[in-house]
Known about the structure:
Elements: H1 6-23, E1 28-32, E2 40-44, E3 50-52, H2 57-66, H3 72-83, H4 90-103
Antiparallel strand pairs: 1-2, 2-3
Amino acid sequence: MTPMDDAALLRTAAERLTALAARSTAGDWRVGGLLASRPEVVAHRPDGGSEHVAEARAASAGWIAGLSPAVAVPLADLLRAAADRPEPGEPALRLARLLLERLGGDHQATPGS
């Protein structure tokens, strides 16, 4: 097997990520629920419908496993590397804005809170 060059590696990872997202439960996933120890994740669709992600495990399992906490450190490294560039690039900035929007609020239920 021939090793991939850096550009091919990045493109392949991007293609697999977007393909996995397309197969997963659609919508804007939000954490909710009444109990912090048992939060619910609900996908809110543009048409106004919603679906509990747990009820759609077959569609969502690959996404959850693929974006496990193990992805956090390399993703953070990627963002830090972009921040150190004179021009970080719009894709990195879009990702940072989206992460801050999704992760920065007090609305998230977390175990033990």
